[in-house]
Amino acid sequence: MYRKLGLVIFATVLLQGCATYVEHRLSGRVEPTGIPTNMPEMIAESGGETREFCLPHLGGCTEYIYAPPTTETKQHNFEFTAVFEDATKSYQLDLTREQIPEVRRGTMVMLHGYGGSKETMYFLAQYYRFIGFHVVIPDLKGHGGSSHDEPGLAVNDVEMVNTLIDSLPARERPHPLFITGYSMGALAAVHVTRQRNDISGLVLLAPMRQFEDAVFEVTKMMHKTAAKIISEESIREGARNTLMKNNIEAEALDLHQVLPPVKVPTLLLASDHDKVAPFSYFEPLASRYVEVREIPDRHHFLMAIIDPKLHEYLYPWLQRRR
Question: Total domain count for the chain?
């Protein structure tokens, strides 16, 4: 009897330790991987600027990229190759000025996902610039050039993003204002929009679904060894504890809860090939304001890469927003 009781206590302590480990990983700084070492030079050469933005009342600074439109460019070839363990994916889009005769005027704020950085959104930013947008891409809390040690988990990034937008001179953020959010950044984009009355449209790319579901799926996908050692319940408990530690309700990271009240035109793009943010999960959100479209056969980490299919949905939708 005592031996069985001891085993139960040991198992409970072990599981609690695993959940604590998950919480610790989710609560610490996130260093992005896979960014070319010459990315700062690439940004500067293409006309972008990397700047620092400090908020003394919020106890920290962050970096952001600002880049003006490139409407004087006659053509642009967008190319991106991703190498996985079992496959190589290449994406290419060739655009000429004749294909984009009517350029946009406006600003696109771009919010990266958990584990990303401002640089991971710059490939898509180049597309937005070509069709006429100013782009503003901040590092969210706990990522990239942010001085904060803990991620903002979308909800706690809102004040920083709002303050940054308001701090920019009018010439660098002409209206209309749009926000593109990818993965967790999509939730941040919705929360920012809920606090403003000047957002003309939202583009949500592979929005993160409920937090503990997303954490579990990403763990299985990116940390296969850990997923075999740590139980699903421990992973989910660690995710729940992370939200509690940050005083964030689970509903605040559930798009089914936070998006419907937002009466702003929204384009949501997702793929059923993506288990982190499957198209079928978001399809019921389609409404008068929300257009939900499927990008076939797209990995979660490649949903912010421009290609002909993404252009097919993005460009006409943006042209209808004036």
Answer: 1
Distance of alpha carbon 44 from alpha carbon 301, whole angstroms: 25
Provide the 10 A C-beta neighbour count for residue 42: 14
For residue 203, the cross-strand partners are 180, 267
Q: Is residue 244 part of a domain?
A: no
Residues 6+ apart with CB under 8 A from 157: 111, 140, 141, 188, 191
SS3 state at 140 = coil
Which pLDDT value is given to residue 17?
64
List the CATH number of the domain containing 148: 3.40.50.1820
Residue pLDDT, tens place only, 1-57: 434 433 333 334 344 468 888 898 899 998 877 788 889 999 999 999 999 999 877
Within a domain: 119: yes
Spatial contact of 188 and 278, defined as CB atoms under 8 Å apart: no
Residue whose tokens read 């803990």: 150
The boundaries of the domain holding residue 278 are 35-209+254-319
For residue 154, how far is the Cα from the chain centroid? 9
Predicted pLDDT of residue 19: 87
| Residue 38 in tokens | 């010459």
Task: Specify the pairing of strand 49-55 against strand 60-67.
Answer: antiparallel
Indicate whether 216 belongs to any domain: no
To the nearest whole number, what is the mean pLDDT of the chain? Answer: 90
| Token digits of residue 294 | 């499927």
Q: What's residue 96's pLDDT?
A: 95
